[in-house]
Amino acid sequence: MEYVYIVIVLALIEYIVLGGLVGRARGKYGVKAPAVMGHEIFERTFRVQQNTLEGLVVFLPALWIFGAYLNPLVAAGLGIAGILGRAVYANAYIKDPETRGPGIMICGIVNIVLLLGGFVGLIRALL
Fold it and tell me: What is the CA radius of gyration of the chain?
């Protein structure tokens, strides 16, 4: 499970980095707290961070359950794919929201596989 925990830490670091990008964009584009609207690039950056937070609610427990009940190495590999997909999504969304599709598709597929795999692992453990 150590590899799963490393991936969890990496996912949280990615979220912190995205939060830092929001702070930097807030200063660069003059969007004073508590405002969350102003310059379009700031809004995109803020939206990426918020979407990432929303995604972590599914990603982290699914990763943990998959690793605990099915296969920790596969879970870690899927987790890395999810983190990379999130980075692709973030880059694309900030540049041009219309290009976010591939990154968010990777994240979605990873989450579905983790959830279904974790569920299968739990059911197997019960039987």
Answer: 16
pTM over 0.85: yes
Task: Indicate the DSSP class of residue 54.
Answer: H
Angle of helix 101-126 relative to helix 72-95, nearest 10 degrees?
160
Q: Which residues of 42-69 are buried (b: 16+ CB within 10 A; e: fewer)?
A: bbbbbbbbebbeebbebbbebbbbbbbb
Q: Which tokens belong to 37? A: 């609207």
Cα–Cα distance for residue pair 69/118, rounded to 1 Å: 6
Omega before residue 34 within 30° of 0, cis: yes
The residue count for the chain:
127
Second CATH level (architecture) for the domain 2-126? Up-down Bundle (1.20)
Report H helices in the chain: 2-28, 40-69, 72-95, 101-126
Write out pLDDT tens, residues 65-91: 999 999 999 999 999 999 999 999 999
Two tokens at 7? 């991936």
Q: Report in angstroms the alpha-carbon separations of 98 from 29, 44, 81, 103, 105.
A: 22, 11, 21, 11, 13
